Amino acid sequence: MWEGLAGWLGPAEWEAVRLSARVALWATLVSLPFGIVVAYVLARWEFPGKQLLNGLVHLPLILPPVVTGYLLLLALGRRGPVGQWLEAWFGIVVAFRWTGAAVAAGVMAFPLMVRAIRLAIEAVDPKLEAAAGTLGASRPWVFLTVTLPLILPGIIAGAILAFAKAIGEFGATITFVSNIPGQTQTMPLAIYAFLQVPGGQDAAARLAVVAIVIALGALLLSEFVARRVARVVGGR
Amino acid sequence: MTLTLQVRHRFEGFALDVDVTTPPGVTVLFGPSGSGKTTLVNAVAGLLRPDAGRIAAGDWVLMDTAARRWLPPHRRRLGYIFQEGRLFPHMTVRQNLAYGRWFAPRDARGESFDRVVEMLGIGHLLGRRPGALSGGEKSRVAIGRALLAGPRLILADEPLAALDEARKAEILPYFERLRDEVSVPILYVSHASAEVARLATTVVALRNGKVAAVGPPGQVLGDAGAMGARGASSVLTATVVAHHDDGLTELANPAGRLWLPEIPDPPGSVIRVQIMANDVILARGRPEGLSAQTILAGTVARMLPGPGPGVMVHVAVAGQEIVARITRRAAEQMGLRNGDSVHVILKTLSVARDHVGAMPDRTATA
Which domains are present in chain A? Predict the structure, then answer.
């Protein structure tokens, strides 16, 4: 099937699809633990500055993506404070690399992921967690054995939503890591590039079809998995 | 193991101030809603941190502000039976039952899994999830889960309040078995005097955050000040003699024969009967030609004027006490005085089924 797909698409298009999948996968997997922690903190803790954190998390959702990309460039570029530190200590350079594209996608998808998981956590009855506490479970155990299984549908929904968003991310990516074929040219960027050159319409159309299939597939998968998990978790 | 409850706590508009020590067995916290029962239990569970106090089961000190000791809930070694059950919906019954056990220290797994499952009759439910259980089944699983955590203290916060009458009648006997077969102290919250009469070793009656009365159920239930005049009752113990064809059960008591609507307990079993003070009639001589079946002879021990038009007459009947609430007018017409001989008359059908329960077959052991 993959060979067929690769044969149907041109090499440059195939490259863009693979790159997009890799970028979105890493963006989702790496941000997921942070997403769960932030969602838990926002759902269950009260502390000064909570609204500030909430605003910060949601910023990429409301800012123009180009602005988010520009801020990432300022912070994580080779001259940026975080970028310099990353290169000096870990030898990691994200600017104009596929890792940078993953960072941009992850940041843009983060608010969606946190929202889905936060809703799931808020739906868990704190009385169940208190009951687990009286039965001898410490806080971390309560989270692992009660909270986490109960919010699993929300985590899966959030992760798939984030993945779909990461696949489609355009503005922040092109601003932060530019549009380098084979390096940072994900599917949306490739579609944009094909539309800029004469005779690129066919390639753009084929990539558009792939994008639609991936988005629909992700949606159906998330529905299916969340429903299965909810059945197990829901006590039937 | 004695239970020490010394708690002082102040909310907005409410102050809890309790200082009682109760003997081993079932301690029932009794009182109307808003009297501070749940606050007190949550302080024992560690879900609420009181301003000051000391809570201990025997020498197991859960908190002591003077000694700066405060155990978090998960280190208190409790078995908390909640009103709503609070079973984990994503786990099977077996996993729910095993949950507390997994966290208990290895040397503290008191009850065997099989014995608890057998005692509660939940063997056929082990593979199901809570969503597929009835209300009564959930309650039994919740009892089992608490018991299997190897607790040093069992807490039950109105575990029957959410159940209908039939389910209550189904679950109460399991608490009686818990009291009689498990040696862990039990703190049981209730606002139903029938549960107090059937289960309690000691009653702590709460009113507005303060202790209104403490003592054995017979004593506290007859206290109109703690129970309200309409709620006052007494608890008699008697032995089942025989079940008769006409649907009545005959019981023996040192004071005479008692008749009740048929109860399931076999002949020879000792039971408790709660008798509401409003249901008792007193007579000077032994009445003849009366429809009431139970007539017991006794002497007036005390007469306490209650609120309203009634008098609470405590009648000593062969070592036990029956409280009758009669009008002041009747007491004057009869010329009742302390020490007078009277006959206590009980209408058989006035005793409700849930006012009859099993008696602890062991006296409280330390």
Answer: 2-233 (1.10.3720.10)
